[in-house]
Amino acid sequence: MTDSKRRRGLMAASALLGGLLALTACSGGDDAKATGGDDTSQAKADEAAAKKSSEAQITITPKDGSNSASINNSAAVRVAKGTLTSVSMTTADGKAVAGALSADKTSWKPTAQLERSTTYKVAAEAKDSAGLVAHENATFTTVSPSNSFIGNFTPEDGSTVGVGMPVSINFDKAITNKAAVQKGITVTSSSGQEVVGHWFNANRIDFRPEAYWQENSTVTLKLALDGVQGAGGVYGVQQKTVTFHIGRNQVSYVDAQTKQMKVTQDGKTIKTIPISAGSPENKTYQGVMVMSEKFKETRMNGATVGFTDDDGKGEYDIKDVPHAIRLTSSGTFLHGNYWGAKSVFGSVNTSHGCVGLSDTKGANDPNTPAAWMYNHSILGDVVVVKNTGDKTVSPDNGFNGWNMDWAQWKAGSAV
């Protein structure tokens, strides 16, 4: 074989071998490609699992964007089909709000009352049974003072009062939705007496039974006004329970004709005190009156109640009236009098409309009639005034709703 033929044969064999090697290399490439395909499938499976939604359903109240949320009950986080793993609530400036998670970890709520006109942010996280995580966020603002109302109530929690003291609530804004507000107020007595509310105006409602409270009973006031709409765009914020005690049954009877006051407890007379009521020119109101304030000493200026002279000054201005007990908001008092002659008490009506009792200046003598009355009286005791020749005191002039009969009283209820 010639050299040229030998070279051509070797080249052909080399080409064939190269082709086989190339074919082997291509086969190896296919194997690698198949292996790479398996990795991609797994990645896609992992990605699909990651994209699967958690079954945990988180609900935040108030809803995101609310701008008149309640400060008591509205804030809460709940989860269905899962458990809460993290809840944070902060003010807009980052101050944390303490909260409590339920035992089953399905709900959370703040442990303190929220502030009015404050923006809060809530972030919640939960897991379902498969361990998949869900997140929810919300931002809301609590009701502002201008868009909320508060009721100032009497008597005070834990106090002991007389049998005539009503539950009186004065709202800081006019109430137009009276029925809804009244339904949010409950007044009950341990005596079982029926208690009914009466609206005197858009801002005031009083509650009382048909007859005086039963002595030694306990009265409970429950305010459930949180979120209750009292007027257009105005909501309640109070959620409170108040209890007070009714003391002994003390009712005093002032007779302007005999000029005597008979003090009774549980229907029995315990003392009779000479008095001086309003003069014929300045008669004392008649009717049932309830003691609403007590002052060991107070100033009384006639100008504040319409008694002025030609110069516009008060007809009287006494800076140290002793043992004064308020009976009306317009200025009728049962009080000590040290400046008048002692002979007028029990014989002549000389006052500008108050009921005067003999006293000494300085309110330091406990033995005067006025001091005795002051020391034996509590807020809520009843004073019944008669035979003055004047009109009956208005039921809303002080705590004097007892001057309305039961039918009239119930007619003023919005429920």
Account of the 3D structure:
The protein is α+β, with helices and mostly antiparallel strands. It has 3 domains: about 90 residues, Immunoglobulin-like (Sandwich); about 100 residues, Immunoglobulin-like; about 150 residues, L,D-transpeptidase catalytic domain-like (Beta Barrel). Helix content is about 15%, strand content about 35%. Strands 21-20-19-27-22 form a 5-stranded mixed beta sheet, with no helix packed on it. Strands 1-2-5-4 form a 4-stranded antiparallel beta sheet, with no helix packed on it. A 4-stranded antiparallel beta sheet has the order 9-11-14-13. The longest helix is centred in the N-terminal third of the chain and has 49 residues. The radius of gyration is 41 Å and the shape is elongated. The termini are far apart.
Note the gap between the termini. Answer: 127 Å
Taken from the alpha-carbon principal axes, the silhouette is: elongated
Report the CATH superfamily of the largest domain: L,D-transpeptidase catalytic domain-like
What's the gyration radius in Å?
Answer: 41 Å
Mean pLDDT: 88
Q: Number of DSSP helices?
A: 4
Strand order, largest beta sheet: 21-20-19-27-22
Number of strands: 27
Question: Any idea of the CATH topology of the largest domain?
Answer: L,D-transpeptidase catalytic domain-like
How would you classify the quaternary structure?
Answer: single chain
Corresponding CATH architecture of the largest domain:
Beta Barrel
Q: Estimate percent helicity.
A: 10-25%
* Major β-sheet profile: 5 strands, mixed
